[in-house]
Specification:
Blueprint (H helix, E strand, L loop, with lengths): L4 E8 L5 E8 L12 H14 L3 E2 L4 E2 H18 L7 E2 L2 E2 L8 E5 L4 H9 L12 E6 L10 H19 L2 E7 L8 H14 L5 E7 L18 H8 L5 E5 L5 H8 L4 H5 L14 H12 L12 H6 L1 H13 L4 H14 L3 H18 L2 H12 L1
Parallel strand pairs: 3-5, 4-6, 7-8, 7-10, 8-9, 10-11
Antiparallel strand pairs: 1-2, 2-9
Bound molecules: zinc ion (ZN).
Length: 379
């Protein structure tokens, strides 16, 4: 599927010894920079910060990157992980790398990724227009899935078809970084930046599609994406600038933008549990609620089973109420007032779904925990 591959790697010693690599199709090998270890330092940084372990590199690191990480980022990571502040030691390289001026972003075909593609493909600033859509294997395919291989193949195929049909270069980078930095969900922003940094002679800019609005900016060790504007600024170098995109709008506004972006009708893929949109999981339903409010469900009939959604409409509306009330789902909370205005309150369905919700949780949690969550939900 990959064709012939080229690999850039380092040998690590210490507690987690072994070879850490990034590999790409052979045609991209010319964009590696073998004189610097920037991508490897980034790949190891968040887990090292979490563990309180210093990084020492014999291969040089770009001067600005090393300065920014040691001066600004490591202290912040120490705070969010409540760990000692780590230090990166490496020779510095001051020479600025020339690059091909490519502009990239990830393509999962989810709401955030398609929003970035819709917004940054034809800007008034030609050097900022997207040229490459990327799929980085740095751990995301291993999260909560029964069949990660199947999911990976599906995503690669979907991304390739999107690029071919809409005129973008498709770039795939594979890495074993998850063997060394296994907590993908907690710091994927940095791992994806590391993958882009593996080709510093290619990219001048890289857009990181954020699922977190800047209005909700806060420091947390749970997921660095909540303050990725700061993180990505620390990771940007003289030759590669990272941008956190989509932070200025809500998820609903992103769906609204997509509803006028025709490629999304055929490619929108939001489900985390199945390859095709299942239409019943939280992520699918959040998107369906937004499409419903915008009156554009029928535009998406090739990617969602719209008749099935309509058939169980009052049940799904009730689930929105239940999730915003009991599960504190922030998206459902925002969506519910519009759904209520449009359809009223499906009282009986809400009672039924509430009972079902409580029953399902009693199976999982103790009674004391449920009582705590219910009380908590009232505040
Ligand atoms: Zn789903």
């Amino acid at each position: 599927m990959f064709g012939e591959l080229a690999k850039i790697s380092v040998i690590l010693s210490g507690e987690k010894a072994g070879e850490l690599f990034f590999e790409v199709g052979l045609e991209y090998a010319k964009y590696f920079a073998v004189d610097r270890a920037d991508c490897f330092v980034l790949a190891l940084l968040p887990q090292a910060a979490m563990d309180g372990v210093d990084i020492v590199s014999r291969v040089p690191v770009s001067e600005r990157l090393l300065f920014q990480i040691n001066t600004f980022l490591c202290g912040t990571l120490a705070e969010v992980y409540t760990q000692r502040k780590i230090k990166i030691t490496a020779p510095i390289v001051r020479e600025k790398l020339e690059n091909a001026g490519a502009v990239g972003t990830g393509i999962t075909c989810g709401v955030d990724s398609l929003y970035s593609i819709a917004e940054y493909s034809k800007t008034p600033f030609p050097s900022q227009d997207l040229t490459h859509l990327c799929l980085f294997n740095v751990g995301s395919h291993n999260i909560g899935l029964d069949a990660p291989k199947e999911m990976e193949e599906f995503r690669v195929d979907l991304a390739k078809r999107f690029c071919k049909k809409n005129g973008y270069e498709f770039l795939r980078i594979n890495s074993n970084v998850h063997d060394f930095s296994p907590n993908y969900a907690r710091y994927f922003t940095v791992l994806n930046a590391a993958a882009a940094m593996a080709l510093p002679k290619l990219f001048s800019s890289y857009y990181s599609s954020s699922g977190c609005a800047v209005s909700e900016f806060h420091l947390t060790g749970t997921d660095l994406a909540h303050f990725e504007i700061f993180v990505l600024d620390c990771l940007s170098t003289e030759h590669l600038k990272f941008y956190s995109t989509g932070t200025e709008v809500s998820r609903f506004e992103k769906v609204k933008t997509l509803s006028n972006y025709a490629p999304s009708y055929e490619f929108l893929n939001v489900c985390n549990t199945h390859t095709k949109n299942c239409g019943v999981c939280v992520k699918c339903l959040r998107t369906l609620y937004a499409l419903d409010i915008l009156d554009v469900l029928d535009k998406y009939s090739s990617v969602f089973d719209v008749p099935a959604y309509r058939k169980r409409h009052s049940c799904f509306l009730a689930q929105c109420w239940v999730r915003k009330t009991f599960a504190k789902d922030i998206f459902c909370k925002k969506m519910w007032p519009s759904l209520r205005r449009k359809y009223g309150i499906p009282v009986w369905s809400i009672i039924r779904e509430s009972i079902r919700f409580v029953r399902s949780r009693v199976k999982i949690y103790s009674f004391a925990y449920i009582r705590y969550r219910l009380q908590d939900a009232k505040h």
